[in-house]
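Let us work through a complete example step by step.
Step 1: write down the sequence.
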Amino acid sequence: MSSASRVYRLLSDALGFEVPLRIRLWNGQEHGPADAPLVVLRSRRAVRHLLYRPGELGAARAYVTGELDVEGMELADALRHVWSAVDEARARDPRAARLRVRPGTVARAAVLALRLGAIGPRPAPPAAESALTGEVHSAERDRAAISHHYDISNEFYRLLMDETMAYSCAYFSAEGMTLAEAQRAKLDLVCRKLGLRPGMRLLDIGCGWGSLTLHAAEHYGVTVTGVTLSSEQRDHVTAVAAERGVGDRVDVSLRHYRDLALEAGSVDAVSSIEMGEHVGDEEYVDFAGAIHRYLRPRGRALVQQMSRSGEHPGGGPFIETYIAPDMHMKPLHRTLELFAGAGLEIRDVQALREHYPRTVAFWADNLERRWHQAVDLLGEETARVWRLYLAGGALAFEQNRMGVDQLLLVKPAGDGSSGMPATPLDWLT
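Step 2: predict the structure and record it as tokens.
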């Protein structure tokens, strides 16, 4: 057997099914189905990454460092091919395509690594990995987690996104929309659901680069308090608000939502667009309670949030290590229970899952077209993190392993009245 065939057989045995990949080693040897994605192991270090950390994280480390690559098809198509084979294998045997690290497998891996000359010290993790310390979901650690993802470079996010700087799922309400048009459609949908009118006060928790904060102030005449833990985002929103002449109606608070100096019942509406994923499971009770506390009676809240069913509440080892440390996603029904438990009435749930792959496709295209600029801004490793993140993230929504929904909530008055319209036509037309 060639070395490449031995590697292929070891991977297949460890995963309990025929791996849907063709493998090429650094010596040019290849083995695997001819029509499968070609995975190139460029050096022995790629093998060491996989040996020391079997599974998703080891493969991600090898890819991020450039020791492993995919050729012959786009990365997203390669991942789609693999997941399709995994689904087929698990339909036949639920135990298939799950890593099984058994003593015999470890021994075979050690012998093969020795044969390949791949025995060596544990490779250092890529610099792009997060290294958070402190108590999980403390204010300090939350600030560090947000900074890891959002403070890398405003210039990078500008080349990735459209001019709205909306880093969340867009709303493709008509065919042929550009990304900017779909993002503005989403912002208008949120504002209409909240019933925003001139003179109202909106609290935007996790305001990002201010897409909703600025849109609501500029087009709906409201006063907005934006909340972020990212200094890069705060500086961007403040500058753009001044440029657009709404600086007097936009205040961006660089603090944790738990630390806001707002009186109870002092805001007319609350929005939180894809920020709830960064709130821990235990802490979500406080998050839902804070929204209820800040709202006036009959005030509305709009929460757009990702969901995930299954055993793992996070985004997986790669996402949690490189993209969103301490991310916690829960099934939709659990989130609804927490809001209802806080005294908020659920008035509408709109699924946007199919809109996310379309959104990410625009981001991924922007990244590839501006690849050299991204590398200049972030470095090769972090740029490769983003390429892998966008390809894998889009697929998770496409295959219904993750979802995203808009939840419209209201704080009923003491007499039970909601002030809501009788039908959703106010915001759907």
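Step 3: interpret the result. Residues 380-398 form the longest helix (19 residues).
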